[in-house]
Automatic annotation (TrEMBL):
Leading EC class: hydrolase
Sequence similarity: Belongs to the glucosamine/galactosamine-6-phosphate isomerase family. 6-phosphogluconolactonase subfamily.
EC number: 3.1.1.31
Protein name (record): 6-phosphogluconolactonase
GO biological process assignments: carbohydrate metabolic process; pentose-phosphate shunt
Lineage of the species this protein comes from: Eukaryota, Fungi, Dikarya, Basidiomycota, Agaricomycotina
Role summary: Hydrolysis of 6-phosphogluconolactone to 6-phosphogluconate.
Keyword annotations from UniProtKB, A to Z: Hydrolase
Organism: Pterulicium gracile
Amino acid sequence: MSAAAHHSPNPPILNSFASKDELAIHLAEFVVKAQKESIDKKGRFTIAISGGSLPNMLKGLIPNPAVKWDKWQVFYVDERAVPLDHPDSNHHACTTALFSKVPIPKENIHPLDPTLLDDLEELSDSYEKELIKEFAQRDSARFPVFDLILLGMGPDGHTASLFPGHELLAEDDRWVAYLQDSPKPPPKRITFTFPVINHAARVAFVAAGAEKIDVLPDVLDKPELGLPAARVRPTFPGQLYWFVDDAASAKVNLARTPFRL
């Protein structure tokens, strides 16, 4: 097999559900299965989570006794350069919706360093070092290989803090980059880059609601448009999943996959 063939991505798997509640139930099952496979294989589960509406979609994990919270290592795909208890903080959103309600050890959650908010370069370097600490001693890969990365998508097709037309779309070296000109407030952020996202074993987008109905076909059916969310293509053997509701996917041509674990 040629190197190019080896790295060609698997086609995305599109799961569409009748309601957000049904989506949340099956998303929790999916996360638990990914967790079990990772723990069985190597004794830990590395996951990166975005903010926005995503934390609330993870509510199905709260009552689930199969979740081994002590084995989780949680990172944030992107984060706003604000204090950890600020309403704009992804860490704050995830803590409020999920982590405050489950027995996850505090040291297993990796927020940004709030003492570095005034220096974005230092802030992103510091977060990259957190990743190096978790991954470099175990893996020899050029980029960290997360067991699961969970992403959201904005109505403009952005994901993480990677926005249409932004210079960070071309970043192929750094693990964590910063921006001070986010078109969506707050302007100062740090974010995983595409190489980190695309090296994950599994990447799952969660996109629900009628406000996504026009952008979803642009991402799934017209990747040539180059929207940030369409640039998420995990390298083989990684797999991309979409968890959407029927309100968001009504105009999509890509074949839906009957959900199965």
